[in-house]
Design brief:
CATH architecture of the largest domain: Roll
Order of helices and strands: EEHHEEEHEEEEEHEEEHEEEEH
Oligomer: single chain
Radius of gyration: 18 Å
Distance between the termini: 21 Å
Number of strands: 17
CATH topology of the largest domain: Diaminopimelate Epimerase, Chain A, domain 1
Helix content: 10-25%
Number of domains: 2
CATH class of the largest domain: Alpha Beta
Structural class: alpha+beta
CATH superfamily of the largest domain: Diaminopimelate Epimerase, Chain A, domain 1
Number of helices: 6
Strand content: 35-45%
Length: 287
Amino acid sequence: MTHRAPLPFAKWHGLGNDFIVLDPRAHGVRCTPALARAAGDRHFGVGFDQLVEILPGEAGEDGVTPDAALVFWNSDGSISGACGNATRCVAAKLLEETGKDALTLRTAFGLLRARVEDGQVAVNMGAPAFDWQDVPLSEPADTASLPLPGAPGAASMGNPHCVFWVEDAEALDPAAEGPQWETHPLFPQKTNVEFIEVKAPDRIRMRVWERGTGVTLACGSGACAAVAAGARRGLHDRRVTVDLDGGSLLIDWREDGIWMAGPTAHVFDAVFTPAFLEKAEAGTARP
């Protein structure tokens, strides 16, 4: 990245799951691993759970030309295949900009549909994948009950998830429990880790450790994976309110995919200075 002008960005969040939104459609500048790492530092940069780029929608092999394409970055500079709350935030931005009632967004996981339902932005995150090769796992295993302590479930929502069921989610420390499972050899691409307490057939409590980021206040794809894994085991219904540290999401596993609805917030617009961008690419943004 060579850029000698201020680089615009926006800060959004969904339930405290916070994002930087870059729009290369407007300024032509793409993110890099170095910029993601520098901007993701909450003390020497801006801080985010994920950074999302909005790219022009191009026709895919399915013949569909979406309204836009999205690329997700973790704060360690790695790419994430999916981010549900970031998708909802971008959908909210584009729905407002275009005046449309619904739109389509292309991600690495596929084509996602978004619309407003009951005053909140809802996104169809697609169908969960349970085959061990799709999660992926490093070896064949029953993804409904993995051969790990606690017999967690596994699913992919475009990114891997490992779902543990616990008696008391409030008593659990995701920062202490999450890292050992994120990097477990069973997950060759690492994994997101969800800890679930079933409160009722239509309500669960969730804590989360996100791959490449750490503890977050919410995780949209994780909520979808957790509901899918739990419903698959008969622990609760397919339409469930998920209470996260930052608020609640409504997850509805329908015939056409898993719909996720919840609030979004546009916090501010700002720019990265040329000096910060130069230091970011040189790896010297943090003294």
